[in-house]
Design brief:
Blueprint (H helix, E strand, L loop, with lengths): L6 H18 L4 H8 L3 H9 L6 H10 L5 H14 L17 H10 L2 E8 L10 H9 L8 H20 L5 E7 L10 H16 L4 E5 L13 E6 L5 E6 L4 E4 L2 H17 L3 H17 L27
Parallel strand pairs: 1-2, 2-3
Antiparallel strand pairs: 1-4, 4-5, 5-6
Helix pairs in contact: 1-5, 2-3, 4-5, 7-8, 9-11
Length: 318
């Protein structure tokens, strides 16, 4: 573990170790809580990652679970201390109360990921949005679930998150699948959309992201899954699922749910256009929005390429 490691990753390591140790002793949460003179809810929240655990409580709990290896104890205590730190940029006082917990956890885990897979069906992913496109998307939420100050903060965080991500030399491998409807949805003025899609092309051209488009001709594979991201953490620490919902964001660690979404992503990736063909489609829409011609191409989508576009490439292929 490095000193720059995120609190979320350290917290995750502690809670997984505690859960594994309790399972190994075949103890229930109620039994452990009774022995520690804690409430069951306290232990449940620690094991779920909702709250951190102090170094003092951790040492006592490890002793009860008969974890006596001092190397392991020291590492977990250090993790517990790191998990309580609030030193990263996303913990800035200005952001407090404006960001959902799920989003904060996502940003933290992104710093520890080696690969990220994203599927979006309505809009371009936040990590790839231009400032004006992001402002247009967030503006629609004002009065529904966000205040003006919420929108201002989230826009700032979205741009900062993107800046920090792409400035890294060790940034994760980024694979993105977009539903073709995103390229036709007029969420803002044509010049804003042209700017956004041109930014996608530049990211792809600089090998910063692998982009594939699921064409209308592919039907509706897994369309009901909604948008999601899968993050593979470094050093075999497992994978996480992130889902952004209308009312809340969630980070899911359940192995079965992560596996189901990984299978869905692989299916989407294989039925999407290849990188070259996807770039071609995005270029066409960029040109159309730049020229003010947007609706005349709706019925043309896929017509010129349906017979020539190879589908079914394996995940990870360019």
């Amino acid at each position: 573990m490095t000193s720059a490691e995120s609190p979320a990753v350290a917290r995750r390591r502690v809670r997984l170790a505690l859960r594994a140790a309790r399972d190994a002793k075949r103890l229930t949460q109620g039994q452990v809580a009774w022995a520690m003179e804690w409430s069951v809810s306290k232990l449940m929240r620690i094991e779920s990652g909702e709250v951190t655990i102090s170094a003092t409580d951790l040492r006592a709990l490890l002793a009860h679970l008969e974890i006596t290896d001092q190397t392991i104890v020291r590492e977990l205590v250090n993790d517990a201390k790191v998990s309580r730190h609030r030193h990263s940029w996303w913990f800035d006082q200005r952001y407090r109360g404006h960001l959902p917990d799920g989003l904060q956890r996502l940003i933290q885990f992104e710093t520890e990921a080696k690969a990220i897979r994203m599927f979006n069906i309505v809009v371009v992913p936040g990590l790839l949005q231009t400032p004006r496109y992001a402002a247009a998307i967030l503006r629609d939420y004002v009065g529904q679930q966000l205040t003006e100050s919420d929108v201002e903060v989230r826009h700032e965080v979205r741009m900062r998150r993107q800046q920090e991500f792409f400035a890294r030399d060790d940034r994760p491998k980024l694979m993105v699948v977009l539903d073709e409807s995103i390229l036709h949805r007029e969420v803002s003025e044509p010049d804003v959309l042209a700017e956004q899609f041109d930014a996608l092309l530049r990211r792809a051209g600089a090998n910063q992201v692998m982009i594939r488009v699921v064409p209308f001709t592919a039907g509706a594979p897994f369309v009901l899954t909604g948008a999601f991201s899968i993050l593979d953490l470094e050093d075999g620490r497992g994978s996480l699922l992130y889902r952004e919902n209308f009312t809340d964001d969630e980070v899911v660690e359940d192995l079965e749910r992560v596996s189901r979404h990984r299978i869905a992503f692989e299916r989407l990736w294989s039925c999407a256009l290849g990188q070259e063909e996807s770039i071609f489609v995005i270029e066409r829409r960029t040109q159309a929005f730049s020229a003010g011609r947007v609706r005349d191409q709706w019925n043309e989508a896929g017509a010129e390429r349906s017979a020539a576009i190879p589908l079914g490439r394996p995940v990870g292929a360019p």
